[in-house]
Amino acid sequence: LGIEPHHRVLELCAAPGSKTMQILDALHQGVSDSVAAEATSSGLLVANDYKEVRLNMVIERSRRAPAAPLLVTCADGRTFPSLNSGLLDETHGVGSGSLGFDRVLCDVPCSGDG
After folding, report:
1. DSSP for the chain?
2. Lowest-confidence range among 3-7, 24-28, 46-50, 85-89?
3. Whole-angstrom Cα distance, residue 28 to residue 69?
4. Euclidean distance between CA atoms 62 and 20, whole angstroms
């Protein structure tokens, strides 16, 4: 996907979380410690799954990630709701409207489930 630390990524069908962890690693690429990672990563990962029970796996795995820029959501990926951004930054512009994404990953059916 060519994910860079400033990217905003939407991952649909995120559970069980293997790809979520890989994306979080990519958002922290080149950063060695968690304090520096928190300061330099301006990106965001929105990890979504349709089933709330499956999201528990994603949440537990993400607790091991350093300074994770992560938002976990539970919605039907076919009709994923728009997210409003209150952020202002040079890369993505004024955050008065819907949050846009630089990359979208949808692994259906999840290849990690066997």
Report:
1. ----TT-EEEEES-TT-HHHHHHHHHHTTT--SHHHHHHH---EEEEEES-HHHHHHHHHHHTTSTT--EEEEE--GGGPPP-B---EETTTEETTSBPP-SEEEE-SS-GGG-
2. 85-89
3. 9
4. 8
Close Cβ partners of 75 (under 8 Å, ≥ 6 residues apart): 48, 50, 81
Q: Which of 23, 3, 4, 28 is nearest to 107 (CA)?
A: 23
Q: Cα–Cα distance between 75 and 96 in angstroms, integer?
A: 22
The residue type at 98:
S
